[in-house]
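Worked example 3 (structure in, sequence out).
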């Protein structure tokens, strides 16, 4: 039976550590770290992610502001807003919740955030520095994934790691972070042949696809560390018989429990750690200013 990597508990202990530092930071630097979160439009999933980020910022005691902009805001107006935050000395981190409405070019928006305030680590400058092995802001989800793997006590060095999914925000950066820790890394994706065999070689399996229950028990090497990044909302029947929805990951969790050595749940795994790493990144950006 796999042991569950409790992302919620790990997050809480990390956030408590940050909270305990906050007064000291204020005494030393004269103010607290400041995070600005921009949301455009009314996407319910985005709204819930953003609410989680603001709540976490309040918990650790940093200054945060939520900037809610209408769905039809022009690209120029959004870029101007970012420009203002770039020059606001009380703001250390700027996050623009993605996805953006179709009429806005996401690349332009990411590029407009000052490199030193890019707490998501999506700016091309941060991406380049990550791949060059230079100091940078590491994207939150991959950073949280590494912390969760490390929390198992398993030494990543020399292990076979398979990452399914090649997105810029999860798959590619987490592969680089695993490589930095001397894992032998395979990035699998929608065109990978013999995916099952590839996955079965993995001592560490990171799954970031967006397909409910895609990874089945027969794809997992016995004893592997399985990190389920997927967030999928599926229909279900509630206890009272009514129809509802619930969140599931990309891994068939119950079946995987019998095979894996360690596994993250959904919800309560990678999600909370992503938010906690955002807090950590904001504090790092703040400290780098002084
Ligand atoms: P994406 O949605 O941009 O791309 C999906 C990836 O999955 C692609 O690289 C594709 O090659 C791969 N893929 C699709 N079908 C496949 C198949 N049949 N076999 C193998 N590979 C396949 O990726 P993303 O943005 O990294 O998101 C992936 C999932 O992770 C989504 O469910 C998303 O909601 C979730 N996510 C969670 C967090 C978190 O904090 N927990 C953060 C980011 C993303």
């Amino acid at each position: 039976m796999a042991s569950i990597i409790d992302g919620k508990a790990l997050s809480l202990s990390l956030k408590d550590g940050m909270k305990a530092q906050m007064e000291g930071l204020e005494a030393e630097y004269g103010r607290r770290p400041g995070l600005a979160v921009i949301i455009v439009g009314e996407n319910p999933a985005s709204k819930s992610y953003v609410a989680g980020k603001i709540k976490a910022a309040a918990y650790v005691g940093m200054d945060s502001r939520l900037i809610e902009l209408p769905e039809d805001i022009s690209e120029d107006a959004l870029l101007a807003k970012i420009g203002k935050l770039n020059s606001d000395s009380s703001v250390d981190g700027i996050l623009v919740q993605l996805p953006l409405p179709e009429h806005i070019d996401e690349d332009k928006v990411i590029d407009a955030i000052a490199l030193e305030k890019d707490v998501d680590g999506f700016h091309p400058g941060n991406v380049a520095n990550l791949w060059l092995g230079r100091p940078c802001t590491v994207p939150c989800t991959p950073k949280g994934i590494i912390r969760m793997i490390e929390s198992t006590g398993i030494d990543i060095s020399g292990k076979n790691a398979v990452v399914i999914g090649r997105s810029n925000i999860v798959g590619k950066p987490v592969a680089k972070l695993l490589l930095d820790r001397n894992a032998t890394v395979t990035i699998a994706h929608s065109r990978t042949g013999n995916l099952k065999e590839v996955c079965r070689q993995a001592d560490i399996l990171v799954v970031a696809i967006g397909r409910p229950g895609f990874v089945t028990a027969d794809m997992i090497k016995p004893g592997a560390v399985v990190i389920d990044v997927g967030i999928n909302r599926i229909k279900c029947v509630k206890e009272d018989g009514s129809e509802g929805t619930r969140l599931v990951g990309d891994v068939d969790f119950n079946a995987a429990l019998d095979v894996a050595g360690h596994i993250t749940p959904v919800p309560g795994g990678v999600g909370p750690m992503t938010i906690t790493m955002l807090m950590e990144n904001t504090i790092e950006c703040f400290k780098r200013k002084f």
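Notes: The chain is about 40% helix and 20% strand. The first strand starts at residue 3 and ends at 4.
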